[in-house]
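Quick question: what would this complex look like in 3D?
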Amino acid sequence: MNEFIFFFNSVIISGAVIGSIYAIGAIGVTLVFGILRFAHFAHADMMTLGAFLVLILTALFPAVGPAIGLPTAFVMMPVAMVATAFIAVGIDKMFYKKLRENNVKPVVMVMASVGVTLMLQGLIRFFAGTGTQSLYIDDRKAIFRIDLPFESASRNLVITEPQILLFVFLAFAVVSLHLFLNKSRLGKAMRAMSDNPDLAKVSGINTNTVVGVTWIIAGALACAAGTLLSLDVTLKPDLSFMILLPIFAAAIVGGVGHPYGALAGGFVVGMTETLAVFNWTFVLRPLEKAIPALDLPNTLAFVPTEYKITIPFFILLAILIWRPTGLFKGKII
Amino acid sequence: MALIECKNVHAGYGGMNILNGVNMAIESSEIGVIVGPNGAGKSTTLKAIFGLLTVSEGSIELRGDDISNLAPDKLVHKGMGFVPQEHNVFVSMTVEENLEMGAFIRRDDFSYMLERVYSFFPDLKDKRRQPAGELSGGQRQMVAMGRALMVEPSLLLLDEPTAGLSPLYMNEIFERVIAINESGVGVLMVEQNAKQALRIAHKGFVLAAGKNRFTDTGQNLLNDPEVAKSFLGG
Amino acid sequence: MQLPKKDIILFSLLAALILIVFASQGSAYSVRVLAEASCYAILALGLSIQWGYAGLFNAGIMGFVALGGFITMLFSFPTNDDFWNTDLPGQLGGVGLKAILSVAIVYGLTQLKRLGVSKKIRLPVIIIASAILYLWVVTSLGPVAEAIESEAGFIGGLGLPVWVGWLVGGAIAGGIAYFIGHICLGLRSDYLAIATLGIAEIIKAFLKNADWLTRGTLTVSPLPWPVPQAGEIGFVAARASYLSLTAVLIAVIYFLLYRAYNAPWGRTMRAIRDNENSSAAMGKDINRRRLEVFILGSVLMGIGGAALVTFNGIFDPSGFLPLNHTFLVWVMVILGGAGNNKGTIFGAVFIYIIWTMSEPAALFMIDVARTLGDAWFGWQAPGDLDSRALQARVFVIGLIISLVLRYAPKGLFPEKVAHHA
């Protein structure tokens, strides 16, 4: 039983946590992919930027959270999401719009987004320093240990407050996005433009508006993903390149341009990562008692933790080889 | 004043002209049909009218207003609908959502227009919740035309609406075009099935090498032995 | 080939810049900068043909550099007797045999279809067998690797001439490029960018953590040089002879590229670049050509990386940074003019000098700001301001990329592209 709880804590919960973060990031990437047709390399730095905006707001108003009973950073997140959304729209106006109007190839847009990512990194490092920061300034991370009503279970289920907030936010974001894309006029226009941009144009859909809405959603979600990740662990300015690959992998696994696919892809990548670095010896110990011949090494993991970064890459390669359109049949390959 | 009039239009892609002086005019009560050999500039003419490529010389007038080189979304606001030949439906969206996208620029209640489109194309009503990508070619064409009608255009541009359809569907599409025209919408269409199309045309334009070769009523063109010999396959 | 006026002016400016560096920084330092710039020029040529000839987005130059550096270290570093005189090589060989055996078994299982085993059974069997065999090999490598690390440090090099390492480094970089390109080149162009970004991180993670092979964070130095080193003939002479070696290498690469460019292969390449659709219609195998260009460019990156690491004299797996080793090269290429080899070399030397000089410049400016801020406003600067300023130079790189794409998308030396309607 204890083995099972250990497995639940370190695989199911951790996997779901990181999977949710990847999912929130990947939904933004996949929307940009679908509407603007390029891989937005600056997405991870928009996440960091959003988290830093939250950090600044938290430092300015540290007493707000305790008054409400939630982490201050989480309370500040919506404000920062709005700000990041506007910054995303501004970045588009300054750096992508002209290129788009000149009908450059998608790879040139990718290059431009690399330029943006480098500029964001420079600014973040200059103004916020290069060290690790915590989003908890005047409050502490609440940790819940849940006793299980089994005799054989001496371990507790462990879940932290930011993890619960993350799941709540993810559910809220997915439901709102679903309603927006399927019920609202602009949401449908977004789907139309992702489906067939030329036809959207001749139908009279204002493509500039749709692009703007896309950036607003992508920016807001990037800020949320960055903040929730930083709440769960810590905030580092060089998190971006590490998180970019899993997010792209999640978007491609799910099928590019497909928000629900990105959601699923995020969980696939997150769970696989956690399973791959999980030390199976602990769970298999009871077997060793039953079968004395079995000599388990101290660590029996598929991938050593320091090679965690390789996992999204291999998932990505596997999906590109066997099903390049992704699990949910993305439209553009 | 004609509904749409092209005066000596020169147009093309990136400095290379494909149209070298196209002239045509139709009224709102009329169906105009553009025919001609491959590469004559038939579809290019429609695209030039709908602002999808650059007009370098001449002018295009909608009820006397110069609309040359206006962006497509502006033209939709001015009451024009365009149905491209290929990829003319949003495959991942339902039939009704396709029609709603056609009405994107309308902020009023357009549900009566949905009903009117369904009365033009009764097949679509049953399939309104089905993704357009799952429909047959003829039904997709109907969705595409319905989408363009949602803004109640005064002029409908159709690029080869019957391409790739069986003769049965072809006749049905032509019947619908006549019905749409009788409801007060001017129609300008490009057709490969020249004979059948000229039969329903009030005006016919035979293009060759980016210019008008013959311009007359549909009936006269059909009866003209020279047109028949060179363009209608004898 | 006539030199247009603009080219003469630009190259004169570059020469003037080099003279300023010599005058202000002394010749030992300046020759070092030039030698490093020449290594970067090889990298940039590799990227220039990938991006300029075939529009391939390689975001993982760092990986190829690291690989080239590692291979040259492995081949040219003196042999480690602590390792070879024990039974460790035998144990390592045993692990190697297990790995080969496992691959053979898995390959054998894939051939089960000949015996009429259905796919439904085959696939799970192959997956489970691969997982078990993989764990078997990895767990048997673990203790051997630990033993090597504790008893011998690392396996050391092979003691072969440096140029062997450079060539093999290039070849292996090409092999990796084949693997990646084979998977990605038929797909969207962005996927190659994502995949190369990934492979670079993986190569770096591997080199950083496989201590038995690379000493990891302990780093390996001094690496042998293909020319006499500073200890024998002094800094300036040693660096100058290294520079002349890389200059000859660049000249050879330039000449070969020039020949290839004007040969049928180059004409096909340009036809594809200028008009992909019509080339495909003419029956040209676009992906095959692209794969060739991708491999060729990556081979050059492997060699350039080997030359760079050899020059630095130290193999430090954590010293490979996406910023320095990927995006700096990108700026060199797009500023110089992608696909234009002359422009690429210009861009490499120019940007590298600017990049090196921006370090003291940034520190100087921060110092001035700190002094003035303190004097005028009593501003207490954060302690890590220097490192912040250095890391913030990323911003300039990003800004240059954005400006070039926006205002001079073809770079300073535009490559002429034929326009077909």
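Answer marked as accepted. The mean pLDDT of chain B is 89.
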